[in-house]
Design a protein that fits this description.
The chain is of the alpha/beta class. The chain contains 33 helices and 24 strands. Strand 20, helix 23 and strand 21 (628-632) form a beta-alpha-beta unit. It binds ligand NBX. The site of ligand NBX has 22 residues, from helix 6. The modification N6-(pyridoxal phosphate)lysine is found at residue 668.
């Protein structure tokens, strides 16, 4: 019941009136515009500032509270936070969304347009960066005092434009007009030092090492508040921006060298200019190492300052702070922590090592060899000479202990060493992160098992028990409640309002899986979401797709191991099959692709071109009209994902088994009622275990079989192709230029790659993938059964909430109360 106050208005009306007044005040006094002349962007800024005021009170309150009660803090170090838009997140989590929508409505402004005016904060590449964003929201929701630390890139992930079917990259400019969410903390600035030399001195018979750097850069803090569900708690995301120590070299300027006078500024500012856009490959360049050390050093200085301010000294650090390394990108933190403790605080080695190794833990996100980070020793030494000394020392002690414990296995040493002696000497950041952490985790059950068997097999023997599994999760606030309000409303009705706080209650939906009325409602919600996506397709690509078709979706970074190409081969096979047998019972499909390729990844970019060339041919062929369409939606980002995911019927998770660490898109799609077609890889396995074998389409080799075939070297791609007439026909068509008449040889490299190496084993899985897709058709043609399976999927996804994942990290790794 709404309360009526003395003025005779309800609390709700009063809240709307207050929101309206706040927005107008911000428009006038902060944006500096008369509402009559305001643009959508002006409305966004005014609305965001009004919302931010509410956040700020909670933010400062929370900071005071956790300071006072001496709670252990979590520091999440990540080079990427893929946040996306924040307005809906903030309003929704503060339960102000309806109030602000009504307030804007009264002002004649559609909140949808205001939402769209916010640029995505795309400070990440893909899954790893988005995971960090989901984790920040869950930590705030669970009331864990946490700081996210990262870089405030001026330019996030590039904007993808598809021109004549090819990917082009353009700079992304989210900060062009500033962002209303952040607070500049110019008082929080640290010196970050690079280069120079190390002087060794002996003081009272104790060697001391004094680093004389050749360069200093400033790191300036910007805080963005991260709001937990129901505004329960607000944590800061602290992002560092680089500034030159001297903004201008005045002596040069006065001599007339006006450009030279600014070169230092440019060199320093370059550190936080742009996100490295390569995922799953190691960047390997100097600027990248500078970025890594820059944000690590600033973050450690900051958290150590805070600790000393509250607790006086650093001995208690492991009891009051848990530092999580999101992949090896911040692994230099192990050496930096040791340097601070040894050189700045004069601790003894053993004590410094105890503190360091009981404070850090490390999450691994990949086993792909090309993605494991290594640095050439000369480069590392030139940039961080003191850190290299410390790493050598860590390594020596570690190798000595290993030698002692495994006296008969000298070959073990080269595999567990931080230094890789092959191929020029290189530092292996994975080994450093492992050795310096008390806990190392993988991101799905299979991935963690494979870590123990492959990349970290020997380290796991030397340090048994350190590896744990923490299967990834996703925040349901963004990926269900905000992106799919229709489904959320139904869940509240059927499972009770508490479902918003207790996702396990979604299970109640399953009791009604066979109820035709519920099935119809679910189908209707899905259809409405598909209509929204249809409009996006028409607006962006200029052609229509039918909402009654099966929306078959593969949305993720473009990478060969994710096998978008396998999906395209099946698309071509299907296209041929429909044309040869037009009257068969084909399920009308729209194949939807979206995803960016790293700018330098030639093979992945050619596959994007293939998708677009196939789309052009198929979509213009009247003989498959109403049966098959192919869509490549450009510039995939968080906001587009929020539109595609609720509209998907089928979720493509078809990586070569053993290669996808977890996947998180797989969870988002299943939660929104898409059925998965997938290999037994990453978290697909755990999704299958939760939704049941009958409600998922599994195909292909298992990870063990992939390994076995690789070892045996047979059957080869040639044999696979010889055994599959359909595959042969597809390869001949693509290789022969059917989809590229303007350049018949365009896709020859792709086809030659499949015929010779087929590193990702597409030819091994093609037939079983085709068969699984026909099982999909069969189920689609029985709509009640399809919807039933979708309901069972939704009902059984609660375990994939990032609240569950974070609670596990808190209890089993960080040892902080939840
Ligand atoms: O991390 C991804 C994995 O591929 C997914 O399987 C997993 O679900 C996700 C979260 O655990 N890895 C990923 O996104 N990596 C990167 O984006 C990346 C970025 C820069 C880089 C290496 C990898 N140098």
């Amino acid at each position: 019941m709404l309360q009526t106050n003395t003025a005779g208005t309800s609390d709700y009306e009063q809240a709307i009136a207050e929101a309206k007044a706040a927005i107008i005040a911000k428009m006038t006094l902060s944006v500096g515009k008369d509402p009559g002349y305001a643009t959508d962007r002006d409305w966004f800024v005014a609305t965001a500032l009004a919302a931010r005021d509410r956040v700020t009170h909670r933010f400062l309150g929370g900071k005071r509270a956790s300071k006072a009660d001496g709670k252990k803090r979590v520091y999440y170090l990540s080079l990427e936070f893929l946040i996306g838009r924040q307005l809906t997140d903030v309003l929704y989590n503060f339960e102000l969304y309806d109030i602000f929508r009504a307030a804007l409505g009264d002002l004649g402004v559609d909140i949808e347009r205001v939402r769209e005016a916010e640029p995505d904060a795309a400070l990440g590449n893909g899954g790893l960066g988005r995971l960090a964003a989901c984790f920040m929201e869950s930590m705030a929701t669970l009331g864990i005092p946490a700081y996210g630390y990262g870089i405030r890139y001026d330019h996030g992930l590039f904007r993808q434009v598809i021109k004549d079917g090819w990917q082009q990259e353009f700079p992304e400019t989210w900060l062009e007009n500033g962002t209303p969410w952040e607070f500049l903390r110019s008082d929080v600035t640290y010196d970050i030092r690079f280069g120079g030399s190390v002087e060794t001195k002996t003081v009272n018979n104790v060697p001391r090492f004094i680093w004389h750097p050749s360069e200093v850069v400033h790191a300036v803090a910007y805080d963005t508040p991260i709001v937990g569900w129901r505004g329960s708690n607000v944590n800061p995301l602290r992002l560092w921006s680089a500034r030159a120590a001297d903004p201008i070299a005045l002596s040069l300027f006065n001599k007339g060298d006006h450009v030279g006078a600014l070169s230092d500024q440019a060199r320093s500012a370059a550190i936080s200019k742009v996100l490295y856009p390569s995922d799953e490959t190691a960047a390997g360049q100097e600027l990248r190492l500078r970025q890594e050390y820059f944000f690590v050093s600033a973050s450690l200085q900051d958290l150590i300052n805070r600790h000393i301010r509250i607790y006086g000294d650093l001995y208690s650090l492991p009891d009051r702070a848990a530092i999580q390394l999101n992949d090896t990108h911040p692994a230099v933190a192990i050496a930096e922590m040791m340097r601070i403790l040894l050189d700045d605080h004069n601790l003894r080695w053993d004590e410094a090592w105890r503190i360091t190794s009981s404070t850090f833990s490390y999450t691994n996100h990949t086993l792909l060899p090309e993605a494991l980070e290594t640095w050439p020793l000369p480069l590392f030494e030139r940039l961080l000479p003191r850190h290299l000394q410390i790493i050598y020392f860590i390594n020596n002690l570690h190798l000595e202990a290993t030698k002692k414990n495994f006296p008969n296995e000298p070959e073990l040493l080269s595999s567990v060493s931080i230094i890789d002696e092959r191929d020029g000497r290189r530092l292996r950041m994975g080994q450093l992160a492992f050795i310096g952490s008390h806990t190392i985790n993988g991101v799905s059950a299979l991935h963690t098992d494979l870590m123990k068997e492959t990349t970290f097999r020997d380290l796991n023997r030397v340090y048994p028990g350190r590896i744990q599994n923490k299967t990834n999760g996703i925040t349901f606030r963004r990926w269900l409640q905000q992106s799919n309000p229709g489904l959320t409303k139904l869940l509240c009705e059927v499972c009770g309002e508490e479902v918003l706080d207790k996702p396990e209650l979604i299970k109640r939906l399953e009791e009604h899986a066979d109820d035709p009325a519920l099935q119809q409602r679910i189908a209707k919600i899905k259809r409405a979401n598909k209509v929204v996506l249809c409009k996006i397709v028409t607006d962006r690509l200029g052609f229509r797709v039918e909402a009654d078709s099966l929306f078959d979706v593969q949305i993720k970074r473009q990478h060969e191991y994710k096998r978008q190409l396998l999906n395209l081969l099946e698309t071509v096979a299907l296209y041929d099959a429909i044309r040869s047998n037009p009257t068969a019972d084909w399920a009308p499909r729209v194949k939807i692709f979206a995803g960016k390729a790293a700018a330098s990844y030639v093979a992945a970019k050619l596959i994007i071109k293939l998708a677009n060339d196939i789309a052009k041919t198929v979509n213009n062929d009247p003989s498959v009209q109403g049966k098959l369409k192919v869509v490549f939606l450009p510039n995939y980002n968080v906001s587009l994902a929020e539109k595609i995911i609720p509209a998907a019927d089928l979720s493509e998770q078809i990586s070569t088994a053993g290669m996808e660490a977890s996947g998180t898109g797989n969870m988002k799609l299943a939660l929104n009622g898409a059925l998965t077609i997938g290999t037994l890889d990453g978290a697909n396995i755990e999704i299958k275990d939760n939704v049941g074998d009958d409600n998922i389409f599994i195909f292909g080799l298992t990870a063990a079989e992939v390994e076995e075939r690789k070892r045996a070297g047979a059957p080869t791609a040639t044999d696979n192709i010889a055994a599959s007439p359909m595959l042969r026909q597809v390869l001949d068509a693509i290789g022969g230029g059917v989809f590229s008449p303007d350049d018949p040889n365009r896709f020859k490299p792709i086809i030659d790659g499949l015929r010779s190496q087929d590193r990702y084993m597409l030819t091994d899985d093609f037939d079983s993938y085709w068969a699984a897709q026909r099982r999909v058709d069969e189920l689609w043609n029985q709509p009640e059964k399809w919807t039933r399976a979708a309901i069972v999927n939704i009902a059984n996804m609660a375990w994939f909430s990032s609240d569950r994942t974070i609670a596990e990290y808190a209890e089993q790794i960080w040892k902080v109360p939840v």
